[in-house]
Amino acid sequence: MSEPVFTEIDHVAIAVRDLDGAVAYYQDTYGVEVEHREVVERDGVEEALLKVAESYVQLLTPTRDDSPVAKWMEKRGEGIHHVGYRVSDCAVALERVKAAGHMVIDEAPRPGSRGTTVAFVHPKTAFGTLIELVQE
Questions:
Q1: How many domains does the chain have?
Q2: Does pLDDT of 1 surpass 70?
Q3: Is residue 1 part of a domain?
Q4: CATH number, residue 71
Q5: What is the pLDDT of residues 94-133, one digit of tens each?
Q6: Among the options 46, 47, 81, 135, which is catalytic?
Q7: Which of 46, 81, 132, 135 is an active site residue?
Q8: Is 132 a catalytic residue?
Q9: Active site annotation includes 54
Q10: Given this model, what pLDDT does residue 58 score?
Q11: Residue of 8, 41, 54, 58 marked active site
């Protein structure tokens, strides 16, 4: 048996149309606060990270109509967009995925929000789930 790639769940990303409204819902209903908020220009999204134990709920809203999240929401509406898993080394994890013959969105790791390094695995070979590999 080989070494596990995932070290823990980093975040569950939820695509929303109204980021401020979603933040207020989580604050008022569940008492969680925003730990980090950022616009990620490259991906055309604004995110708010709500800390839950050692992981996050990541609320995402598109900042432009051509962003992948905007296109995804056009087809599917609001809801769970992807799951981010922490990895020790994003490049090694990504190579392992590719070596196993699975489809990836990112051929190489790239900068993510809050100073992370990330890469996405295509949902077509991950049983319908978009997976984000996250190295802190």
A1: 1
A2: no
A3: no
A4: 3.10.180.10
A5: 999 999 999 999 999 999 999 999 999 999 999 999 999 9
A6: 47
A7: 132
A8: yes
A9: no
A10: 98
A11: 58
Active-site option among 11, 46, 81, 135? 11
pLDDT tens per residue, range 23-76: 999 999 999 999 999 999 999 999 999 999 999 999 999 999 999 999 999 999
For residue 55, tell me if it sits in a domain: yes
Active-site annotation holds for 38: no
Q: Which of 25, 44, 37 is nearest to 114 (CA)?
A: 37
43 inside domain: yes
Is residue 111 included in any domain, yes or no?
Answer: yes
Note down the domain range covering 15.
Answer: 6-135
**Residue 82 falls in the annotated catalytic set:** yes
Out of 46, 81, 82, 135, the active site residue is 82
User: Is 47 among the residues known to form the active site?
Assistant: yes
How confident is the model at residue 2, as a pLDDT? 79
Residues 43-48: contacts with CB under 8 Å, at least 24 apart: 43/67, 43/68, 43/69, 44/68, 44/69, 44/70, 45/69, 46/19, 47/13, 47/113, 48/19, 48/22, 48/23
